[in-house]
Design a protein that fits this description.
mainly alpha, 2 domains, three-stranded antiparallel β-sheet, two-stranded antiparallel sheet
Amino acid sequence: MNGHGGTILLLQMQPGSVGNGPCASWTGAGAGAIPMIMSENSGSSRSATGPGWWQVARHGMCPACNTPGMVWAGRAWEPPKLNDHCRACGEPLAVHEASGRALYPVVIPLVALLVFSALRVDDIWRLPLWVYPLVWGPASALIVGLAVRAVRAAVLAARVAPRGQG
């Protein structure tokens, strides 16, 4: 039993098997098998490691139950914010929100890179002044928004996924 009311199934490696990692050859499973957690209540299963940060960021997969679309609150054009809890399994998500100083190491270098890119584009093409706000305003908002979403997803996946391991 683990802390979430499920049983972790342990699979044995085949004797004498040589593979590329711990999931190379499992007894009774295919070559790509991974440990699964079976819920005693619903019979559903999920990966013992949960989804990666990319799946959390892109699909909004809950790291606790792997249900897509449960992580992000608000609309696509709004700044990324976590839901208070997963609507499928009830896992509290808002307590894992990365904000404030945790985002500085990502946002500040990214803004500096955007400023230097705008200056380089100006050196190369000498576009009219009115073009810069039209191009760099939406591009900056989109790039910074995607970076913040990726960081928040990585923090959420790192904090919640290990709970299922035992």
